[in-house]
């Protein structure tokens, strides 16, 4: 088994993705050292490493590659069109050209999706609810992430529903993240939409601190931003998606063709709200939003 991710190993442990995948495999009867072995490859935010790591996994002749996120999936597909690839997850697998359709993927790739445009639309809706009069929405992307351009297009399309204008900014390092927040201040951004990204996740404490210093309300994509000052977090349970990825691996190892296995869309989304951050920003979070939250820090 090969597992390819843009995260660091520590982030994978913190997020529970590695443990969830191992548990899912164990529940299906796979015991490490007895009937399965794992090759873990974590790029730690260095997208340039993903291609080398994907080639390495192909050279090791792994039976399946589980790839996390658009960048890892893209690199895995460049490395092989024969070894089955399980996406865990992809934001827009059809738009990215990974699969022909969600119902009939075709080729050597299948797995899970995180919702794409609908998820982006929901995140912006949450920001609009929490930040009255939101008109200028900053979107920060990593130019080294192949999904960045499609994410900006999704944000622009979704923002139109709320009469908001997107201010697109890029950062590929900690220093550039600092510069991007300075630009947000100059552009008088009302709020920030942050996409899933391995670099940003590794720099999440820096990003949350800069958002607080600039007094910019933000919505974040992953649970790891909750509890460290992230105002709003909305996204799928990534650990649960990795556990479900194990079922795809099991079916493929038992003879199913990945191209015949429909791509699974996320079932449960989670919403987290930090009222301490809201208070520091001078925001009053509406009660209807709090009632929908899975967890609230007061």
Describe the structure.
With 298 residues, this protein is an alpha/beta fold. It folds into 2 domains: 2-114 and 238-268, Response regulator (Rossmann fold), CATH 3.40.50.2300; 117-235 and 270-297, Response regulator (Rossmann fold). It contains 12 helices and 12 strands. The strands form 2 sheets. Strands 7-6-8-9-10-11-12 form a 7-stranded mixed beta sheet, sandwiched between helices. It has a 5-stranded parallel beta sheet with strand order 2-1-3-4-5, with helices on both faces. Helix 6 (148-159) links the parallel strand 6 and strand 7 (165-170). It is globular, with a radius of gyration of 19 Å. The mean pLDDT is 94.
Range of helix content = 40-55%
The largest sheet, given as strand count, sense and whether it forms a barrel, is: 7 strands, mixed
State the fourth-level CATH superfamily of the largest domain.
Answer: Response regulator
Count of helix runs: 12
Strand elements, count: 12
The span between the termini is 43 Å
The poorly predicted ranges are none
Order of helices and strands: EHHEHEHEEHEHEHEHHEEHEHHE
CATH architecture label name of the largest domain: 3-Layer(aba) Sandwich
* CATH topological fold name of the largest domain: Rossmann fold
Sheet/helix structural class: alpha/beta
Overall shape: it is: globular
The spatial strand order of the largest sheet comes to 7-6-8-9-10-11-12
Give the overall average pLDDT.
Answer: 94
**What's the CATH class of the largest domain, please?**
Alpha Beta
Number of domains: 2
What Rg do the Cα atoms give?
Answer: 19 Å
Strand portion:
15-25%
